[in-house]
Amino acid sequence: MSTAIKPRHIGRNISRIRELRDMKQEALAHAIGVSQQTVSTIEGSESIDDERLKAIAEALGVSSEAIKNFSEDSVFNIIGNTYNDDASTIKNYNCTFNPLDKLLESIEKNEQLYERLIQVEREKAAYLEKLLKEK
To answer: What SUPFAM superfamilies does the record tag this protein with (predicted)?
Structure first.
């Protein structure tokens, strides 16, 4: 039985981080300028050259050390501290009024204006009739 520490599988780490970022292999491939098949091969590799690892880390928004020293807790912490999305910020879009109440108010105002218009038209018609009778 050996007590030697097994080296970390960098490809699996990349795959897991990519999945945590909700990124497809095609998107990562496009970001680093390779094909989807190359990304699949990279994710199957135990080790990756430092230059490619740096490019992948940049595309995933984490450091290359985070990929090398992958653990669920550390990655969640790094992503939580570096990922900036407007959806994650709290916004208060609650109305301070009931839109239906405002709609009903406007309908009532329209009815009042219509009734005033009808009254004015009646008065005008009565005035014109009075003028016609006088002649």
So the answer is: lambda repressor-like DNA-binding domains (SSF47413)
